[in-house]
Amino acid sequence: xxxxxxxxxxxxxxxxxxxxxxxxxxxxxxxxxxxxxxxxxxxxxxxxxxxxxxxxxxxxxx
Length: 62
Known about the structure:
Blueprint: H1 2-15, H2 23-57
C-alpha cells in the first residue's frame, strides 16, 4: 500500500511541472488538425469517385 501512495505522490509532484499550452494555442492547433483531416477526407473521396468512374468505364464491377 505504501508503494502505491509513494507512486501517486510522485505523480502529483510531476503533474505540477507540466507546462500547459495556452487556450488560444490549443484552439489554433485543433483547427489546423481539423482542416487537414477534412482536406484529406475530401481528397480521398475524390480519388474514390475518379477510380470508380474509371472502373465503370472499363466495365469492371467494384
